Amino acid sequence: MSRIEHDTGVISRISAYSDAVEMRGNLRFLSTSGTPGFDQEGKLSPDFTTQAEWAWRNVLKALASADMGPHDIVRVTQYLVRREDGPLYQPLRTRFLDGAKPASMLMYVAGLPWPEMLIEIQLDAVKAV
Fold this sequence. Notes:
The protein has one domain (2-128): CATH 3.30.1330.40. It is built from two helices and seven strands. By secondary structure, the chain is of the alpha+beta class. Helix 1 (48-65) packs parallel to helix 2 (86-97). The longest helix has 18 residues, at 48-65. It is globular and about 45 Å long. The chain has helices at 48-65, 86-97, and strands at 2-6, 20-24, 27-31, 35-36, 73-80, 103-108, 119-128.
Protein backbone atom coordinates (compact mmCIF):
# COMPACT_ATOMS: atom_id res chain seq x y z
CA MET A 1 0.00 0.00 0.00
CA SER A 2 1.20 3.49 -0.67
CA ARG A 3 0.09 6.73 0.90
CA ILE A 4 0.31 9.94 -1.05
CA GLU A 5 -0.25 13.28 0.68
CA HIS A 6 -1.42 15.78 -1.93
CA ASP A 7 -0.50 19.42 -1.39
CA THR A 8 -2.58 21.75 -3.56
CA GLY A 9 -1.27 24.81 -1.73
CA VAL A 10 -4.39 25.44 0.36
CA ILE A 11 -3.90 23.73 3.72
CA SER A 12 -0.14 24.37 3.88
CA ARG A 13 -1.06 28.06 4.32
CA ILE A 14 -3.35 27.23 7.24
CA SER A 15 -1.94 24.36 9.31
CA ALA A 16 -0.04 21.07 9.35
CA TYR A 17 -2.36 18.66 7.58
CA SER A 18 -2.94 17.48 4.02
CA ASP A 19 -5.25 18.87 1.35
CA ALA A 20 -6.00 15.27 0.38
CA VAL A 21 -4.67 11.81 1.22
CA GLU A 22 -4.73 9.01 -1.34
CA MET A 23 -4.28 5.34 -0.47
CA ARG A 24 -3.35 2.75 -3.11
CA GLY A 25 -3.28 -1.03 -2.76
CA ASN A 26 -5.15 -3.74 -0.83
CA LEU A 27 -6.83 -1.90 2.04
CA ARG A 28 -9.01 -2.10 5.13
CA PHE A 29 -11.23 0.93 5.75
CA LEU A 30 -12.52 2.10 9.15
CA SER A 31 -15.04 4.89 9.62
CA THR A 32 -16.04 6.01 13.10
CA SER A 33 -19.33 7.50 14.12
CA GLY A 34 -19.34 10.94 15.64
CA THR A 35 -17.47 10.43 18.90
CA PRO A 36 -17.93 12.75 21.90
CA GLY A 37 -15.67 13.15 24.91
CA PHE A 38 -17.33 10.71 27.29
CA ASP A 39 -14.98 9.48 30.00
CA GLN A 40 -14.66 5.82 31.11
CA GLU A 41 -17.84 6.15 33.17
CA GLY A 42 -19.87 7.68 30.33
CA LYS A 43 -19.79 11.19 31.77
CA LEU A 44 -19.04 14.50 30.07
CA SER A 45 -16.84 17.00 31.88
CA PRO A 46 -17.99 20.62 31.70
CA ASP A 47 -14.38 21.45 30.69
CA PHE A 48 -13.68 21.63 26.94
CA THR A 49 -10.08 20.39 27.15
CA THR A 50 -11.12 17.33 29.15
CA GLN A 51 -13.90 16.53 26.67
CA ALA A 52 -11.53 16.99 23.72
CA GLU A 53 -8.91 14.70 25.28
CA TRP A 54 -11.51 12.01 25.93
CA ALA A 55 -12.95 12.36 22.43
CA TRP A 56 -9.48 11.72 20.99
CA ARG A 57 -8.86 8.84 23.40
CA ASN A 58 -12.18 7.33 22.30
CA VAL A 59 -11.44 7.55 18.56
CA LEU A 60 -7.90 6.22 19.11
CA LYS A 61 -9.44 3.31 21.03
CA ALA A 62 -11.66 2.59 18.01
CA LEU A 63 -8.58 2.73 15.78
CA ALA A 64 -6.67 0.37 18.09
CA SER A 65 -9.56 -2.10 18.00
CA ALA A 66 -8.95 -2.35 14.24
CA ASP A 67 -5.15 -2.54 14.71
CA MET A 68 -4.76 1.03 13.47
CA GLY A 69 -3.32 4.23 14.85
CA PRO A 70 -3.12 7.97 14.15
CA HIS A 71 -0.99 7.51 11.03
CA ASP A 72 -3.77 5.43 9.44
CA ILE A 73 -6.26 8.32 9.64
CA VAL A 74 -6.99 9.74 6.21
CA ARG A 75 -9.79 12.16 7.15
CA VAL A 76 -10.95 13.73 10.39
CA THR A 77 -14.00 15.92 10.88
CA GLN A 78 -14.28 17.86 14.12
CA TYR A 79 -17.32 19.70 15.44
CA LEU A 80 -16.85 22.31 18.17
CA VAL A 81 -19.70 24.20 19.79
CA ARG A 82 -17.76 27.23 21.04
CA ARG A 83 -15.44 29.24 18.83
CA GLU A 84 -13.36 30.28 21.86
CA ASP A 85 -12.28 26.64 22.30
CA GLY A 86 -10.49 26.63 18.93
CA PRO A 87 -7.13 27.89 20.25
CA LEU A 88 -7.22 25.27 23.04
CA TYR A 89 -8.05 22.53 20.56
CA GLN A 90 -5.25 22.91 17.99
CA PRO A 91 -2.29 21.86 20.21
CA LEU A 92 -4.31 19.03 21.76
CA ARG A 93 -5.28 17.70 18.31
CA THR A 94 -1.66 17.94 17.16
CA ARG A 95 -0.50 15.92 20.18
CA PHE A 96 -3.01 13.11 19.57
CA LEU A 97 -2.25 12.96 15.83
CA ASP A 98 1.42 12.30 16.69
CA GLY A 99 2.77 13.83 13.47
CA ALA A 100 0.06 12.36 11.20
CA LYS A 101 -1.35 14.82 8.67
CA PRO A 102 -4.81 13.60 7.58
CA ALA A 103 -7.23 15.61 5.49
CA SER A 104 -9.15 17.65 8.04
CA MET A 105 -12.35 19.64 8.50
CA LEU A 106 -13.16 21.71 11.60
CA MET A 107 -16.64 23.16 11.99
CA TYR A 108 -18.24 25.32 14.61
CA VAL A 109 -21.84 24.25 15.14
CA ALA A 110 -24.76 25.62 17.13
CA GLY A 111 -25.11 22.43 19.13
CA LEU A 112 -24.54 18.68 19.35
CA PRO A 113 -26.94 15.87 20.41
CA TRP A 114 -26.62 16.64 24.16
CA PRO A 115 -26.46 20.24 25.39
CA GLU A 116 -23.35 19.51 27.49
CA MET A 117 -21.38 18.13 24.50
CA LEU A 118 -18.70 20.61 23.41
CA ILE A 119 -16.91 18.48 20.79
CA GLU A 120 -17.52 15.52 18.51
CA ILE A 121 -14.96 13.83 16.22
CA GLN A 122 -15.52 11.57 13.21
CA LEU A 123 -12.71 9.99 11.24
CA ASP A 124 -11.88 7.63 8.41
CA ALA A 125 -8.79 5.42 8.49
CA VAL A 126 -7.23 3.03 5.99
CA LYS A 127 -4.65 0.27 6.46
CA ALA A 128 -3.13 -2.34 4.21
CA VAL A 129 -4.56 -5.86 4.32
